[in-house]
Design a protein that fits this description.
The structure holds two protein chains of two kinds.
Chain A (H helix, E strand, L loop, with lengths): L5 E7 L3 H12 L4 E5 L10 E2 L1 H11 L9 H9 E6 L14 E2 L5 E2 L3 H9 L7 E3 L3 E5 L4 E4 L4 H6 L5 H15 L16 H9 L3 H11 L9 H14 L8 E4 L4 H14 L3 E4 L6 E5 L6 E4 L7 E8 L12 E14 L24 E6 L8 E6 L11 E7 L8 H7 L6 E12 L12 E3 L8 H21 L23
Parallel strand pairs in A: 1-2, 1-14, 2-11, 8-16, 14-20
Antiparallel strand pairs in A: 3-5, 4-19, 6-10, 7-10, 8-9, 12-13, 13-14, 15-18, 15-19, 16-17, 17-18
Chain B lengths: L9 E10 L5 H10 L15 E6 L4 E7 L12 H4 L4 E7 L3 H17 L5 E7 L5 H9 L39 H11 L2 E4 L8 H11 L17 H6 L7 E2 L4 H5 L5
Parallel strand pairs in B: 1-3, 1-4, 4-5, 5-6
Antiparallel strand pairs in B: 2-3
Classes of the chains: A alpha+beta, B alpha/beta.
Organism (chain A): Apiotrichum porosum
Protein name (chain A): Rab proteins geranylgeranyltransferase
GO cellular component, one term (chain A): Rab-protein geranylgeranyltransferase complex
Chain lengths: 498, 260
């Protein structure tokens, strides 16, 4: 039973955006009750152990019933064809895996990195540089590393000198202030791939590399301007923490980060209930629009809050925002016991040199063909805390409803076969953006789940931006800003790090 | 800070606290870290974690002490809490029998969630409430140091003058958990065992000193956590910190601009 029936803010779901909002609001002095009907933290961004993943998939493939609560029935319509293979010989170590429902990277100059530093949650979570980005070369039947920075281009032995010059010019352009550049004027809507080929004389192969592995576009038709803006952010991320643009989160990334923000919220007095006791029901907005009430099995009385922050998944039909479509993505997650070839050392050891041990993480992009969509693969080794030593976790996903179509790609990433595999299809509802969210206008703050085509590189920053938006919608012009340091705030951690 | 032997590098160890609400988890840490006791500590608010060094003859252990921040109340402690913890202090209240049962449940949870090599200390707190009542038996620490001055567990904030034992109070809070019962359970599960008083300071240093002595230092993962304790990369990079790991708040790195 809770100590109180009323809170400044009740937050439903411990997804990353909700957790960021929770921590920021608690830090600003609001009373926060944070609920999640799942037994685990992270919601749609969770990191799961193997047995948790099996349960997750089994629950989502059960037959829906009329007795289902809003969240359960939303999960049934969101996920389809969820299945896992038996744990087999991995069973004893099942808890040593951290598999993400949100395979994603953090750009070193993105929104989330700023939020992590401002909130001090960076102290709880570990990141490491992504080791490489490669593009699949169908002609060679192998992955080829994409030179993403000036240094990479210099070192790359597979690119001819004239091509290097062109590639360098294109990278410099993408890193610069191109909005007013004559080269781009009038061509903002031109597909990026065509624009790069035409304006910089790049070969198809190099233009594809820039499109899919530097700008991380999902199709050849993405318009030039927004793609270049994205590419610029990624290119400028290089050098902040090392020679590459992206960071990989430890222990599954997004889910671990969400836990960190939840801990920060708890440290500032937030209350947490997870599991069946936290399943909300009877969510009602008061007639005067000044509060929201709801019930949970874990508390005998109705709970009221000045604000309710949640994703549409928790709301009854009458309160749900209008859906303007869905984006369907098929995912597969595999555990493999043989080093995927994409992690092989960049340069074969010369005579007398010590053999390099190979990479720990990689992104591999399969460009779209006439018959297949663009497929992304993210590979994580033991160094990311995702799995035990001598094993690797492979994520594969594509915009398709046919999860079996990923299997041939898995065969290319992990030709020696897999030890365990989970597959599912996600239908992410694209909610109509809230019209005008004036502070205090509604006690309901609805977060928008990420439903765009760039989950890998944009998903985490999207969540961070949603978290900050929710904070602002609740706190408004409060004297406390988003993770603003109070003036008299002492650093709680000791200062004696020598 | 105070005089430090530069030749001895502190080994950082994550230590987690567990136990039922109001058994005195935070008070124990406050006594250890600041040698202080506050009669009315409110439920833990505001601190991410506290750190305190423990000097032994041959090593300095720097404890990074994580409090539950109230997340234990509805059993919502995140896996992150247990991640890479090398030690745990599970606290119960010797005047409340039910709190030992809770402590046993936490020990089980640790065995399920935490690193298998974790060193667990079971601590019966509030010894001051019964000391007058059952005298000698309770005030004798189980893990009595062989020689009192063998390795003074000094941290820099303490000058080696432990606070005087509190005057024996009236036996208002009678003991509900016998020393023998808790000790038998601890032995059976392979836990360190102490009865202590955060209020009087009795045995508090000993808890942490004994943990520091017991932790097998070669199994500790460097921070930020990489992979697992057996991780080849982290083992290779342990001395200099993991080369691939990134410190987000690192200002020097952050100053450098984009490279293109």
């Amino acid at each position: 039973m809770l100590d109180s029936d009323s809170y400044d803010t009740v937050i439903l779901g411990t997804g990353l955006a909700q957790s960021i909002a929770a921590a920021a609001l608690a830090k600003a002095g609001k009373s926060v009750l944070h609920l999640d009907p799942n037994e685990y933290y992270g919601g749609a961004q969770a990191s799961l152990t193997l047995d948790e993943f099996a349960t997750w998939a089994a629950e989502r493939s059960e037959q829906p019933t009329d007795a289902d609560d809003e969240y359960t029935s939303a999960q049934h319509s969101r996920y389809e064809s969820a299945s896992t293979t038996p744990l087999g010989s991995l069973a004893p170590d099942r808890r040593r895996y951290a598999l993400s429902l949100f395979p994603s990277l953090m750009a070193s100059r993105g929104t989330l990195v700023g939020t992590l530093i401002a909130s001090d949650v960076s102290k709880y979570v570990g990141f490491r540089l992504l080791d490489s980005v490669s593009l699949w070369d169908d002609a060679k039947g192998a992955a080829a590393r994409v030179p993403g920075s000036k240094e990479d281009v210099f070192k790359d032995k597979s690119v001819s000198l004239p091509d290097k010059r062109r590639l360098m010019k294109a990278l410099l352009f993408a890193a610069g202030e191109f909005e007013e550049d004559e080269v781009l004027k009038g061509h903002e809507e031109e597909p990026l791939l065509a624009f790069l080929t035409r304006s910089f004389g790049l070969s198809q192969r190099l233009a594809e590399a820039l499109t899919y592995a530097v700008a991380h576009a999902s199709s050849p038709d993405e318009p030039a301007l927004p793609s270049l803006i994205r590419a610029r952010r990624y290119i400028r991320s290089i050098g902040r923490y090392g020679p590459r643009a992206f960071l990989v989160g430890q222990y599954g990334g997004a889910g671990e980060v969400a836990q960190g923000f939840c801990r920060a919220c708890a440290v500032f007095g937030g209350t947490y209930i997870l599991g069946p006791d936290a399943v909300p029901s009877d969510i009602t907005v008061a007639n005067d629009n000044a509060s929201v009430s709801l019930k949970i099995p874990g508390h005998p009385r109705t709970i009221t809050a000045t604000h309710l922050v949640c994703s549409p998944d928790f709301l009854p039909a009458s309160l749900k925002p209008e859906s303007i479509g869905t984006k369907t993505t098929a995912y597969t997650v595999a555990v493999v016991a043989t080093r995927p070839p994409v992690l092989a050392p960049a340069n074969a050891a010369e005579e007398g040199e010590e053999e390099e041990e190979g990479d720990d993480t990689a992104v591999l992009v399969f460009p779209p063909t006439d018959t297949t969509p663009l497929v992304r693969a993210l590979v994580m080794g033991e160094g990311t805390g995702s799995c035990p030593q001598g094993q690797w976790v492979v994520y594969l996903w594509a915009e398709t409803g046919d999860v079996k179509s990923l299997q041939p790609f898995l065969g290319k990433v992990a030709p020696e076969g897999v030890s365990w595999q989970a597959s599912y299809v996600e239908h992410a509802a694209q909610a109509k953006p809230a019209a005008s969210e004036e502070t205090g206008a509604s006690p309901l703050v609805i977060l928008e789940p990420y439903a765009g085509p760039h989950l890998l590189t944009e998903g985490l920053d999207w969540e961070a931006a949603q978290g900050e938006r929710a904070f602002t919608a609740v706190a408004g012009d409060d004297e406390h800003g988003f993770f603003e340091k109070a003036e008299d705030e002492d650093d709680e951690e000791d200062g004696d790090d020598e | 800070m105070a005089s430090e032997d530069p030749s001895v590098k502190a080994v950082q160890v994550k230590l987690v606290l567990l136990g039922e609400a109001a058994v005195g988890k935070s008070s124990l840490v406050l006594r250890f870290v600041q040698n202080d006791f506050n009669e009315n500590t409110s439920p833990t608010i505001g601190a991410a974690f506290l750190t305190q060094k423990c000097r032994l003859e041959n090593r300095v252990v720097k404890f990074e002490i994580w409090d539950t921040a109230g997340q234990e109340r509805f059993h919502s402690l995140a896996p992150m809490y247990y991640r890479n913890a090398a030690a745990a202090v599970v606290v119960y209240d010797i005047t409340k029998a039910a709190s030992l049962e809770k402590a046993k449940a936490w020990v089980k949870e640790l065995q399920r969630q935490a690193n298998p090599n974790i060193v667990i200390a079971l601590v019966g707190n509030k010894l001051d409430l019964v000391e007058g009542a059952d005298g000698e038996e309770a005030s004798t620490p189980t893990e009595a140091p062989e020689a009192a001055d063998e390795d003074a567990p000094a941290d820099e904030d303490e000058d080696g003058t432990p606070p005087p034992p509190a005057a024996a109070p009236a036996s208002e809070g009678p003991r509900q958990v016998s020393h023998a019962e808790a000790k038998a359970y601890a032995d059976e599960c392979g836990l360190l065992f102490f009865e202590a008083s955060a209020k009087a300071g009795t045995n508090v240093q000993d808890v942490f000193t004994e943990i520091a002595k017991t932790i097998p230092l070669d199994t500790i993962t460097p921070k930020p956590a990489a992979g697992g304790a057996q991780n080849r990369r982290s083992a290779a990079n342990a001395a200099a910190g993991d080369a691939s790991a990134v410190n987000l708040g690192d200002g020097a790195a952050a100053k450098k601009g984009g490279c293109c």
